[in-house]
Amino acid sequence: MIDVRDVWKAYGGRDVLRGVSLEVPAGACVAVIGPNGAGKSTLLRVLSGVVEPDRGSVWVAGRPVRAYRRRELARLLAVLPQETAAPFPFTVRELVAMGRHPYLRPLRGETPHDRAVVARVLDELKLTPLADVPVDRLSGGQRQRVALARVMAQEPRVLLLDEPTTYLDIGHQVNLLDRVRRWQRQNGLTVVMVLHDLNLAALYADEVVLLAEGRVVARGRPAEVLAEPTLAAVYGTRPLVVRHPECGAPQVLVRPARDEARGEEADGQWRMNASPCAARG
Ligand SMILES: Nc1ncnc2c1ncn2[C@@H]1O[C@H](COP(=O)(O)OP(=O)(O)OP(=O)(O)O)[C@@H](O)[C@H]1O
């Protein structure tokens, strides 16, 4: 479904993507992880055709992404961004209905089918009671659910998510990704998501791509990529990788720096001698 070959992109003479290649089969879910500035969002912008690479090619569903007309591409591919504040106080229903724009014919408004799709999506995401509420009166979690409803109304075959869980609490994070996964499985959707949270990436993605300094430094199943030496080299910290007790997926624990409130015992384990607050007080 997605075929990225040897893509290079520079800003102001500095290479941000350096020969990135990535193939994503139809119906797969791939997480792109990596440190700040690694080029993850740039890769997503290249994938969605917003940014043109300096070299290399990006194909989606058998054609170069830049060869699609705008409306045609919007029927194929949708992007869920991390920040979803609407510039105007549209109601929830109005905002979700914008997802149907790529399907509207000139001089003809919404069809009964468009209205039915919007109603179904509002219902699926339990937004019907909020349909007439202006989006700027909603909480961050509710706004992100509306943004997801909008891209669902777009009925794409490819969904790109750019750090979609950044402003959400853990309950809303899991809720959002559960919905994306259900949608993916029911409709054969192809998903590429940029995630900072390595544990969510391990739990939700079939495959993880680790980007650092504009290059793919590792890719594979979560257990192959989320290895302590790899993460230590890329993130400059010493993580501990453990297994999720229920599903066995790798989960990454971080180690805080040593301070006066901690001590290292003979077995090498760090133990709290007193709370950091008590130490300071
Ligand atoms: N439009 C732009 N103009 C100039 N430089 C840019 C532009 N977009 C991105 N960059 C630079 O490219 C590099 C990669 O940015 P990008 O946003 O792709 O990284 P990222 O991996 O998504 O980072 P983060 O995790 O911090 O969001 C950064 O150094 C950034 O400053």
Automatic annotation (TrEMBL):
SUPFAM superfamilies: P-loop containing nucleoside triphosphate hydrolases (SSF52540). It comes from the Bacteria. Keywords: ATP-binding, Nucleotide-binding, Translocase, Transport. Residues 258-281 are annotated as: Disordered. Pfam families: ABC_tran. Residues 2-238 form the ABC transporter domain. The keyword DNA-binding does not apply. GO terms for molecular function: ATP binding; ATP hydrolysis activity. Transmembrane segments: none annotated. InterPro entries: AAA+_ATPase (IPR003593), ABC_transporter-like_ATP-bd (IPR003439), ABC_transporter-like_CS (IPR017871), P-loop_NTPase (IPR027417). This is ABC transporter ATP-binding protein. It comes from Calditerricola satsumensis.
